[in-house]
Every structure is written in structure tokens, then in C-alpha cells.
Protein 1
Amino acid sequence: MAMDNQKHFMEDTTSESDNSSTEEDPEIPEKSQSAPAPPPSVSPPVPSIPPPAPVVVRTRNSPHYELRHTLRGHTDSISAVKFSPDGMFLASTSNDMTVKIWSPMTGELIRTLKGHTKGNSDISWASDSVHLASASDDRTIRIWDVEHGLPVRVLKGHSDSVFCVNYNNTSTLLVSGCIDGDIKLWKAANDGDIKLWKAANGKCMKTLNAHLDYVTAVHFNRDASLIVSCSLDGLIKIWNTTTGQCLKTLTEASAEALWYLLLKLSHFNTFTFLLSLPSSQHVQFSPNSKYILSTAHDNAIRLWDYQTSRCLKTYRGHTNRLYSICACFSVTGGKWIVSGSEDHRVYLWDLQSREIVQILEGHEDVVVAVATHPTQNMIASASFNSDLSIRIWVDRGPPAVPPASTSPPLKEDTQEKR
């Protein structure tokens, strides 16, 4: 949560195994809005000198991102950055209780939104690129009219700090997650107004008793029929949006991990085995909704097949042991996975080969938030207390080309990469 500087969770983890499969190569995802960045927590330690960077595999198809702008203005740790769906704006939010709107093209600060009474954890753009939702430790979600800088509505109903928030692609639904383990579903009109199911007044239409620990991320699939959530309890869950039923549960641990089992009767009258799992920090559907990307406190990012519930690929090389660091897809100039890191760097992996193709350096503290532009080869990254900057990176390679709906056949992974 955003109470005392962002995204710091001190859980220990035991699993270092790579859960990658050599089954099949994912298709190129289609364009979509980025998922919400996960929430913050207690004060971070003094940043240490980052270790040497891992080996980067460069090819003629590798990206060539360079620093374009450095944005400053927040006075406390930045918890999330998100590009608007039309690509015209970049929103950032912070433990300083504000939301800031920037021009990613010029680096200019356009507007500062004030109203929350405690630190903010997450933001999500509506599809009209005018309305924006912000989640806060003050237990509320605010819907903003960004054009006029005014709050449209304040959503109340969570019993504790709101960690994460996400609009669906048509902005008719809003989902939020809380540190009490609950997920709430709200119905929203296209004008930014929030309504109770078949009624007005911004009431919550559904509450899912989802997890046994902090909910760190929530995300809709493309048609909003499913919600994926993750938590410090180490579980990733997929929910039916209409019924609220939990359809699947994924775990971040491997078969080789030493597990202890705790048997608990769940809210759906089924038994759930809870394992000694690394805490799940961030999760999102791929833009084509066939895959799920997740991060955890074991220095790994995993790509899951939604249909089979199998982990297809694991990406390693960055550092993620303490903080809730997000990862996202880049589907404009190439098929990359992008993530922040506790070593002050931004990492890019090839989606298929899992090789690190570029490392972006310049931040002076933990990079907790990253976002990719919807139509251009542009990345935004944000950092902690010793830095407090947002950096805009632009690929100096060929112009962005919208991805094809299907991928050409590629070689299967021939060996595990740890």
C-alpha cells in the first residue's frame, strides 16, 4: 500500500526453480491497455549500489531504447504510471496523495489532481482517455475528469487501503482490490459516472472474498468476462465476472519446492491447499486474453497459458525480492516483456526466446512501475525515494508497426533457462 513509500513486502521465498515449459510459443498479443501496477507498503531500505548487469543478447532485431525525457514533480515514492489509451497522456500517482498528468511527447506537466487524504497505490484510465480512476490508502477510489481536473465521484465501500484498480476495455466495469483480501466490482457508465447494478449512486455491485492476504493486482480480460487477481498469499485466481465464481487457481511455485500444506475451507465450499509460495505481486492478461503474465518475489516473471493453466515461459535476470514490481507487454515495435527491478534498472526480454535484449539504466533507486505506449515504441518507468523521477524511453529503431493477429511459427524452447 502507499502508506509509507511504495510496494515493499518483506516475505521470504524458497523457490528458485524455473517453471518454463517447451510446449508452444505464444502468439503476438493484440494491443490493449496496460494492467494496473501493484500496491505499496512500508518504508524501503536505503538503496544499495546495484550489482553488475546481466548479459544482454543483441541481434539486429533488438530494441534500441534511449532516454527522451526525465519528469520530476512528485514529492514521495511513485507507485504507478499509465499511458492513456489514445497515447496522448501519461498519468502517474504517488504516496504524496496526488495524481499527475503529463505529456509523454514533451515531458510537460499538464495537471495535478488532488483530493485523496492518504497515499495512492494505483491508477487506471477509462477508454475515453478523459476519465481516470485512482486507488488510495484512504479506502476510496476517485473517478477524475482529467480534462477539467475535477473528481466526478468518490467510491466508498472498502474497509481498508485500496491496493489496485482496473477498468475493462469499454469502461463499463471497474474492479478494485484491498488489503483485506476482498475484490469489489463496480458498474460504470461511459461518461465516467459509477452506478450500482441497475441503479445510481456509486454503490458496489459485487464483493468477492478472494484471497487470504493483500490483493496486489486485478485485471480484466479483453471482453471483461474474466478477472484475474493475485495476492501476497501466493495465489493467482481467475474469476467469472458475472457469477463471481473462482474458475482457476495458479501457483507461483514449482514441483521441486518444499511445500507445507494448510487445508482451509474456502468461500465456495471447496478445499484449497495453501502452499509456501512466493508472494504474487502483479498479474495481467495478455492483450489477446490467451495468456497471463505474473511477477513474484522469486526474481521471476512467468507467462501462463490460460486454457491449460501451465507456465509456458519464465523470464529471469532482474531482481525482485522485496517490492511489488510490475511487468507488462510491449507489442508495438517488438514482442517484449518489460519490467522494473530492485537493481535500479528496466529490463526487456524477448517474449519467445526469454533472452534479455536490453537493459535501461539511469534511475537511482528501485524501479517499481513501468508502462508501454499503446501505439509507439515508448516506455515509461518510475522510481523510489532516492530518485522520484519518471523516465520516458523511446526506441530509435524503425517506427512502430501494429502487430499481426497471429504469429509465424517459431522454434520451441529446447532447454530450461534459469
Note: The first strand starts at residue 65 and ends at 72.
Protein 2
Amino acid sequence: MSATFFHRIGEAVEAACRDLPDGYIIELALERGAAVPTLYDPDGEQISPEVGNGLELPDEIADFVVLANAHAAGEKAKAVQS
């Protein structure tokens, strides 16, 4: 893997640490030949889509940040309506 790829991973992790809503977690499971991220909401429920979407790890992490923010916004909207 190239240094550029690892740089992109670093940037994605930094952005996730900065931009994830409070309580949301991206867990990264590493094994030989694979890195699998999983997204959890503040209640510990997995909200990430099925693995194997064909994205590179940095793009998948970035997509999970977008998904977490959309999920958090939806939860806030539900709370306001209640």
C-alpha cells in the first residue's frame, strides 16, 4: 500500500474524531488482509450498512461520519416532535 493511502486513512480518522456526533463510535476491526469499520450509535446499536460495499477504507470512514450525522439529526428531529 502506498504512503498516499496511509495518509488518506490518517486524514479520514482525524476528520472522524473531529466530526462524529457525541456518543457515536466507529470501531475498526483489523485482521490479516482486511480492515472492517463498524458504526455504532450512542445506545451501542450498530447502524453501519453491510460490509463489502467496495469502498476504500478512507472513503468508508468518511461515509460513516456522514451517516452518523444524518442519524443524529434524525434522532434530534424525533425528540423535538415528541
Note: The two ends are 49 Å apart (CA to CA).
